[in-house]
Specification:
Blueprint lengths: L2 H41 L2 H28 L2 H25 L4 H29 L5 H26 L5 H20 L21 H13 L2 H16 L1 H14 L4 H24 L6 H18 L2 H4 L4 H33 L5 H29 L2 H19 L2 H7 L1 H16 L1
């Protein structure tokens, strides 16, 4: 295949991948919104709602290592299409139950668990496939468009679901999600996942690795990649310490500052708008030259914004100013999240060998999914017993400390040797003066 044809095909992948992600994300979020409201209306129980969340988080945590092994061993296109078809069938099953005997909580929990498993296989495999779908020069564009589609769905789906909920029966939401999933299958089936892939061919007769051996090989590979290890540890600490913001901003705005529900919704929407606009900007600009350095500065900015959530608890503000302040703060959070996530993901896509991508991304997903609920539970307890402002300020300082240690100058120079050369040239020029 000529280079020109491959580039045209990569352009097709870029937009097909984005549209597929947008449609499936939109369907998933509309479904999640409807199911959450349905459970709360049906039972009025926070425990039932939390059980549904556990059915989403636990299978993802448990299945991520299997997903990484499968993504590195078998056809990635087959895995993604199979996972999407399984999602369609799961929703179809729930739709059938709702039309014949009415939806039960057990059916919702089972469907949520199946969707969590299929999204884990699909997500890990898609993350492993980016460098096979598009040319290296447009990896940042692909990652930005992917994030943009998720952000767009995050903004639009609650609004549409909110309008529809209460006016149409539950099975309409299921039909919407099922249709979105079927369209995603059709789009994904037209993509060539091996276009730029650099995976090694499996030699016939060679001894097959067990899943345990495969995961050990993935961990051994990571130990030889200090820069990737630094990025993974930074990501994990962010996931954990970010619990201070995730739990704190809702608790502070609703319980402490008595923010009106519609104003709280607009403030949360500002986060998604910030993510959308920064994703759009990164999709159009040249690739970030020093991603680890940019990510490091972005995390410091994120930590400062997180401490800023505490300001209205320390300094009294009029309601309108407080609303504007938090809207701008969360908009800034949206911007910095993408400034951190996109360069880091592009860097990992380029640095990790194609044959190890599935296992590396699954290790990251497993650890992140395990730490996130732990962070939520810990911070939920802390906010009940300690002043909220000090929790946010201390967590922000810890985040800054973590990134300064893990992304110290020696690690940044390992990731970007040209930075050291640039400094040496500048030093030489100064000494000559």
């Amino acid at each position: 295949m000529s280079e020109v044809i491959k580039l045209k095909r990569a352009t097709y992948h870029l937009w097909t991948f984005t549209i597929s992600k947008l449609i499936s994300s939109f369907g998933a979020q509309v479904y999640a919104f409807a199911v959450s409201f349905y459970i709360l209306q049906l039972t009025g129980s926070a425990t039932s709602f939390a059980t549904n969340l556990i059915c989403s988080i636990l299978p993802r945590t448990l299945m991520a290592p299997f997903a990484g092994y499968v993504a590195d061993r078998y056809s990635r296109k087959t895995i993604i299409i199979t996972a999407q078809i399984a999602s369609t069938l799961a929703i179809g099953g729930l739709l059938t139950i709702s039309l014949t005997s009415g939806i039960s909580l057990i059916a919702i929990y089972a469907t949520t668990a199946v969707l969590a498993v299929t999204s884990t296989f699909s997500g890990v495999t898609f993350s492993s496939s980016i460098t096979g779908l598009v040319d290296e020069s447009r990896i940042q564009k692909a990652m930005s468009l992917n994030q943009m589609s998720i952000s767009f769905a995050a903004i639009g789906s609650p609004a549409i679901a909110g309008v529809l909920y209460g006016t149409v029966p539950m099975h309409v939401f299921l039909i919407m999600y099922m249709t979105a999933s079927m369209v995603a299958v059709l789009l994904e089936s037209t993509m060539n996942f091996k276009l730029f892939a650099k995976r090694k061919e499996v030699v016939e007769g060679a001894p097959k690795e067990s899943m345990l051996q495969s995961m050990r090989a993935g961990l051994s590979y990571l130990k030889l990649q200090p820069v990737i290890m630094a990025i993974i540890w930074i990501s994990l600490f962010i996931n954990f310490l970010f619990g201070a913001f995730m739990v704190g901003h809702s608790f502070i705005l609703i319980e402490k500052l008595k923010m009106e529900p519609e104003h709280f919704g607009l403030i949360d929407g500002a986060l998604a708008v910030g993510m959308l606009l920064m994703s759009l900007y990164l999709s159009m600009r040249k690739e970030v030259k020093f991603p680890l350095l940019v990510g490091k500065r972005g995390i410091i900015g994120m930590a400062l914004l997180m401490s800023g959530v505490a300001l209205p608890l320390i300094i009294s503000m009029p309601y309108s100013l407080m609303f504007a302040y938090y809207a701008m703060l969360l908009f800034g959070f949206g911007l910095t999240q993408i400034i951190v996530n996109t360069p880091f993901m592009v860097m990992m896509q380029k640095m990790i060998d194609d044959d190890y991508k599935g296992r590396v991304f699954s290790i990251l997903e497993t650890m992140a999914m395990a730490l996130m609920p732990l962070g939520m539970v810990l911070y939920g307890f802390l906010y009940d017993v300690l002043p909220a402002q000090w929790i946010l300020i201390v967590s922000s300082l810890l985040l800054i400390g973590v990134v300064l240690v893990l992304a110290r100058p020696s690690v940044v120079r390992k990731a970007h040797p040209e930075l050291g050369e640039r400094k040496a040239v500048k030093a030489k020029a100064v000494s000559e003066l």
